[in-house]
């Protein structure tokens, strides 16, 4: 009976990327814990940049300064 | 001091249905646990169909295939 | 596809009361939104009294002062 | 590794107020628990008035009756 | 800035399985959304069987009846 | 009607520190948004080190390597 919530900043996540996250997480849980996918629910929640704070700053401010969350 | 979060797919839930969920959940908790309703908060969160995954598929895709969540 | 989280203070909630909350919430959602109960998951989370704050005070402190959450 | 979710009703919270909440919560956790702010994430979620229930009533209905959440 | 919460029933999930879930989810998000893993936090929450309800029944009751969540 | 959830790793947070977090968060919200503290609920949830993942690793593993979350 797994339930997964994925929270990410709203920065152009596509429908295809969401499907990849949903399929990938469901498969990971199914493979690791042997859970029936029909009992696995995944919810993605996109958060506005003004509403996410990191290190005491709004992400919208960090982005204005050119600071991204991209992989190095 | 109860707090309840109800997450449902965004598929035309009306204001009246939300009020029914809020009143019903508050009464259920009050009747079962003897809690003062003035300490009970209920939050409903509607989730876009692209953002909810079930059995590894986006609900938006399931709906396109004619698969609903309706009671049988 | 509903998911419900019920958070209450840990103050002797019995197994039977939990079952009543689970059955009642599932029925309420099924009756109100016509949702298949096989797609409805309910999670109850009990919170220690030191870990719940109300009006700026720990509930454990409120209880020591004789302030309950009981219905009036 | 703290994560904080702040849920408030959507009633005109400004960008500056959000920044104040983010900075204040991050500092509070850093000062109290000695946590590195670079490991602290804060998420603010605004909830529509129809979607928040208090004492068994939608907040939108409470507001129509002139009942606010303002400090006395 | 992703944050992920994974809720599963407490049924003998091992430390190694948790590590697999954490590594797998972080990699999935990094690969799909190009996110820096140093900004990705995963929280696993195990839920007692009396506290998870499915189809209106406590999972502890379902297990007593021999109904599992195993993949078919 | 604010509700706040604070998730931190379980690493010896004291009752007094929890009270400081509860009082501080409630005051911050009251001062910033003019909210009545009697409508503000704060929930602290401590997470076991095996259950929190950061940068793809369990925090328990990071701590064994001597990597802390302390402020620099």
TrEMBL record, chains A, B, C, D, E, F:
Entry's EC annotation: 5.3.2.-
InterPro entries: 4-OT (IPR018191), 4-OT-like_dom (IPR004370), Tautomerase/MIF_sf (IPR014347)
Record: active site: 2 (proton acceptor)
Residue ranges annotated for the 4-oxalocrotonate tautomerase-like domain, each copy included: 2-60
Family: Belongs to the 4-oxalocrotonate tautomerase family.
PANTHER family noted in UniProt: 2-HYDROXYMUCONATE TAUTOMERASE, TAUTOMERASE-RELATED
Protein name: Tautomerase
């Amino acid at each position: 009976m797994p339930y997964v919530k994925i929270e990410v900043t709203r920065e152009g996540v596509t429908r295809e990327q969401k499907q990849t996250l949903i399929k990938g997480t469901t498969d990971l849980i199914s493979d690791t814990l042997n859970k029936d996918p029909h009992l696995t629910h995944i919810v993605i929640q996109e958060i506005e940049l003004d509403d996410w704070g990191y290190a005491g700053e709004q992400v919208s401010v960090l982005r204005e300064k050119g600071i991204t969350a991209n992989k190095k």
